[in-house]
Amino acid sequence: MGRVVLVTGSSRGIGRAVALRFARDGDHVVVNHHGDAEAAARVAREVAELGGTATTVDADAASVAEVREMVDSVVAAHGPVDVLVANAGICPFVPFLEVTEEVYDQVHGVNLKGAFFACQGVAKTLIEHGRPGAIVAVSSVAVYRPGPMQAAYAPTKSGLLSLVRALAVQLAPHGIRVNAVLPGDIRTDIYLGAVTHGQAEEASARTVPLGRIGRPEEVADVVHYLASPQASYVTGAEILVDGALTHARP
Q1: Active site residue 104
Q2: Fewer CB near the last or first residue (10 Å), C or N of the chain?
Q3: What would the pLDDT profile of 121-160 be if each residue is shown by its tens digit?
Q4: Is the pTM of this model over 0.85?
Q5: Is residue 113 among the annotated active site residues?
Q6: What is the pLDDT of residue 196?
């Protein structure tokens, strides 16, 4: 049997691509969603078609109780989680002066608090069982190039990087590696929700040095590498997956 891989927010977008990438290794992928059982079931079927196995679990990343229950249920059914991909995230496009407390709490709850407690739960069980493991957090180039309506979103992605740095040091003695990927313009619901499909392609062609928008699968390949034995000496790393957008002139 392959590894047990928990991917939060994996019913669509980057999370889905990550789930399918691990499926090709024959891993057991836990497809997490919140309120979209049909989409999660489709991903589970795709995982099976690619040679992996899958279960789905409905859990709100913003709820510590639900995150803990999710991790506990996975461990009870399949054993410790070998790989956690903390991917669940939301990005309401709201101007700074219009951000409400409700929006702020929702974004921080899903993007940062949820990731924190998922990491905590997975790390605890790995340590209790004396097992090594890998955690990969999905941050964003918004850390360095925040958009005009990402004032609530960008700090959560910066917080993820701080969390990765702290956990890389604290969990290294237990053989648990912790890394981050920072996607740029990727063809996902979040990105396309801000602009139309055609506008997204045009904008990326104009601003990304590689001249195009990225694919979720290209992020998934980097996540897979960071969780693989080939990255056995890589921890605390932050890898840009952005076609050099971060380093381009504004």
Answers
A1: no
A2: C
A3: 999 999 999 999 999 999 999 999 998 899 999 999 999 9
A4: yes
A5: no
A6: 56
H or E segment at 180? strand 176-183
SS3 30: strand
Q: What is the Cα Rg of the chain in Å?
A: 17
The Cα–Cα gap between 54 and 48 comes to 7
pLDDT tens digit sequence for 188-209: 876 665 555 567 778 888 999 9
Catalytic residue, chosen from 113, 140, 191, 204, is: 140
What is the structure's pLDDT at 188? 87
Query: CA nearest 156: which of 190, 128, 124, 131?
Result: 190
Q: Which residues pair with 136 in a beta bridge?
A: 85, 179
Catalytic residue among 139, 157, 191, 204: 157
Locate 83 and state its tokens: 């790989």
- What is the pairing mode between strands 4-7 and 238-241? unpaired
* Fold category of 4-186+220-235 in CATH: Rossmann fold (3.40.50)
Q: Which residues pair with 134 in a beta bridge?
A: 83, 177
CA 200/CA 204 separation, integer angstroms? 6
